[in-house]
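I'll show a sample.
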Amino acid sequence: MAEFAPRRALLPPGAPRRLVPRWVGPAAAVCVVAALAVSFGGAYWDGYQLRREVSELMRERDTLRRRNAELRERIRLLHTPEYIERLAREQLGLVKPGEIAVILVQPTPTPSPSPSRAGNESRPRWRRWLPR
């Protein structure tokens, strides 16, 4: 049976022995890269969330500015006599002296007769679900 020599015996005579294993350098590099990714990744994520919130707030600001402009136009219209008269006629039903108010009333539709249940009972159960 062959015996395996220890690793030290494979080194050439007079060669210095490594104090640090070969895998330590790449492992340290991976750790440094991971630490940088965690620190800068968190900062990037915070920046991303802030940018998203800023764009959302800008959209909300634009919506509020449009609404504000609409309300200012409505206020301006409320100070004109023509608009006030129109609102009084439409919403309150007011008329000027000598005018006759006409109110159009639509007739209520008559309910359609519902099919009798007796007709459905005479059909086989599986046919009740089919349209006639």
